[in-house]
Amino acid sequence: MDIIRGKVETASKVVAYGPEGVGKSTFASGAPNPIFIDPSGGSSRLDVARVNVTTWDEVIEAVESLRGNAQGFETVVLDEIGALEHLCWDHVCNKYGKPNLESFGFGKGYNLALKEWREVTSMLNELHRDDMNIVLVGHSTIGTFRDPEGPEYDRHHLKLHKALAALLKEWSDTVLFCRHETVVGKTENERSVAHATGARVMHTTHSAAFDAKNRDDLPAKLPLLWAELSQKKRSAKDMAGDLEELSGRMSPQHRKIAVAKMKEANGNQDKVRLVLNWARAKAGAKK
User: Fold this and answer.
1) CA distance 60 to 165
2) N or C: which end of the chain has fewer CB within 10 A?
3) What does the pLDDT look like over 90-137, one tens digit per residue?
4) Strand 133-145 and strand 75-79: pairing?
5) SS3 breakdown of the chain: % helix, strand, coil, rounded to 5?
6) Alpha carbons 148 and 209: distance in angstroms, whole number
7) Considering the chain, what is the average pLDDT of its residues?
8) What are phi and psi of 70, to 5 degrees?
């Protein structure tokens, strides 16, 4: 019996979801040497390799073609999983001669679709074992969460059938909720007003407002950049050095604000990351 001790570094299995236009596909394009399986044209403006698919059989064929022969690709991106879900539904209905999933009765159609997805995640697991990153890109929606321990409230979640959403969240190592960062302030009349900072961020830990998780002890909030997933060990001091390099491309006013923000951050790693992200946006920097 071979006993292995200590942490084992592996490729990533990531679900990244959020509102349309936040930059999820761009985030995925920053992964090592990606190939996109694209049913909806979300990658058309990106300089990436892609396979355009229009049927569920083509999805299976695209994933299958990478098994045992990754063709030099290091990441496979399924973008967007909501569109793929509909291809799966059409496949199941055509296979069994039904007009729609509801006509199966008692959730049977959705269970058959879930079985198809389990086969896909099994194939993706094989790619992952061959050290290939897997990224699933999805949209978010807002729904009411009925808390058995308190009052119900609204929260962001994957825009998928609940059974598929649960499967993919359990399957993944990392679930990222992506959004445009906003801050809430008060007017003179004490009204709450939200302001966009211009930054695009990803949340990595669960909260009442959204689903998220990670198994790598990531900071709770990060800039929406793939590189940030591998920079979790960077210190606040290192990031302060990055900020110093950016200062020459910032206006005097923004440099002054950055200094104040860094003082407020007081060496807190998560807060320093947000300051750096804000500074990149103001300096027009690209990582």
Assistant:
1) 19
2) N
3) 999 999 999 999 999 999 999 999 999 999 999 999 999 999 999 999
4) parallel
5) 40, 25, 35
6) 16
7) 87
8) -75, -5
